Amino acid sequence: MINQIITNIQNDLLGILDENQMKLLSEALAKHLLPLDASPESKPDKDDMLPVFIAAKRVEGCSEKSLRYYESTIRNMMESIGKPECQITTEDLRSYLDTYQRRGTVSKVTLDNVRRILSSFFAWLEDEDYIVKSPVRRIHKVKTGKTVKETYSDESLELMRDHCDNTRDLAMIDLLASTGIRVGELVKLNRSDVDFENRECIVFGKGNKQRKVYFDARTKIHLQRYLTERTDTCEALFVSLLKPYGRLQISGVEIRLRKIGRELNFQKVHPHKFRRTLATMAIDKGMPIEQVQQLLGHQSIDTTLQYAMVNQANVKNSCKKFIG
Questions:
Q1: I need a surface site. Which of 77, 217, 259, 271 has the fewest CB within 10 A?
Q2: What distance in Å separates the CA atoms of residue 60 and residue 172, rounded to the nearest whole number?
């Protein structure tokens, strides 16, 4: 009951408070209200543990976007199987994942993401003593084929820069290309987050984790020119081109880049490709993988390795050098 109240309060304030404020609120509510729910008779209903799990993940610092994905993924599974969480078996989950995969449009990466989320949920149920053993334990990681994903060439980047018809788009492309930040991090940036003297800025990544990223001299010049031309008082680093000049949204960045790509007849122009390009270029030029990991804000170094595409010309040269 208490967990449901906490969830309801959080949902009511979701559009009012930012992620950091939501985290502080969640911690305070959990600290003062959960002890009231400690008696055996007030134990949450075992057939309705999803809201409690989501509340626990929120307290751990998961972003609201991640929480929505967790909730919808688990809810879809429960509705499809039609059993209470504590009665779901390994066979139920295997059948569900098999049916999910047979839809035809689901990639193996997406399927493994679903498996991973379900594993997190049932492992939590096990840790909290609501079930004896997680039914996902015997469902192994989905094998995904490794594909070499494209990056932008130097020529493509220059053509996109030349094609920009306003200083905002030019500064935006430069910042994405030189820092490799996520598009979600880009749109959260404020003017005050940028240190032009040291050519660095503070970004807030996944889970509201803070890190520094660094940009080049060209980006500095174009950013300063863009900010000098602006007449609005919005604190956001990037705003819409038209009044009322509100903060630029993720969809706005994606639409703008797709438009530039279409006009240049480029395939698959999107923000994330800048990130992959930077990672590949940094590793190709000898930057230690641990530093690339820190620059990109990855928790796992395996994620960084997935982003980086090895330059085959360098592999060939190394073979000639070391093997002959």
A1: 217
A2: 32
Question: Angle at the Cα of 61 (from 273 to 183), degrees rounded to 5?
Answer: 20
pLDDT digits (tens, 9 = 90+) for 41-64: 444 555 579 999 999 999 888 888
Q: Give the active site residue among 168, 182, 222, 256.
A: 182
Catalytic residue among 168, 222, 275, 276: 275
Instruction: Match 């122009």 to its residue by tokens.
Output: 269
Tokens matching residue 18: 């930012």
270 included as an active-site residue: no
The verdict on 115 and 161 lying in the same domain is no
Active site residue 32: no
Please indicate whether residue 182 is annotated as part of the active site: yes
pTM: 0.68
Query: Is-catalytic flag, 226?
Result: no
Residues 161 and 213 in one domain: yes
How long a stretch of residues is the chain?
Answer: 324
CATH code, domain carrying 244: 1.10.443.10
CB 59 within 8 A of CB 27: yes
